[in-house]
Amino acid sequence: MAQDTHPDPNGEAILLARSRAGDKEAFGMLAQRYCSFAVGVAYRMTGNSQLAEDLAQEAFIKAWRKLPQFRGDCSFRVWLGRIVTNTTLDYLRRQNPEQPLDETLLPAGPAEDAPLRHLEREEMRQLVRQAVLSLPAQCRVALILREYEGLSYREIAETLDIPMGTVMSRLHYARQLLRERLAPLLELPEHSAGGWREDASDAR
Description:
Low-confidence stretches: 1-5, 98-116, 189-194
Number of strands: 0
CATH superfamily of the largest domain: Winged helix-like DNA-binding domain superfamily/Winged helix DNA-binding domain
């Protein structure tokens, strides 16, 4: 039986083509698909969920206006990530270095956890999040894209438009700072990054 060779009308390539032709509905579908990604990057860079949503919305507006400049030499996710990070970094440059943190923490553990253990894990998440937010912005965004969003070194280099060697040096410096700041708080050994590891296999 012959296979169906018709392209998926909701596939990313089709939606991009339609969006570049001025189809706002198609771009809306792309925005919905990558909304969590955009808000997540902005949130982890600022620590403020309402601000993150506003910055993500601003980034999507910029992406819509800049679509004719999208050459397709990287994925849409990487291209959008570049716009989100630049939008957020521009905001941070205009503001005081420290932004107010939300009361909302990272997702909690299972409901059946004992209250004390639950509180300890919440406190640890808060400490880690505050340590990440205290990093210099350029190092912070590289760490967020790697550790939270799972981008490869090459994708981070494309997103931030910097050489891969610069990505590696920023990540190394970010992890070193986290080790220094978290080790005494969480009683970690000096050589441990509490999950922020150096791994040569990441450079791909």
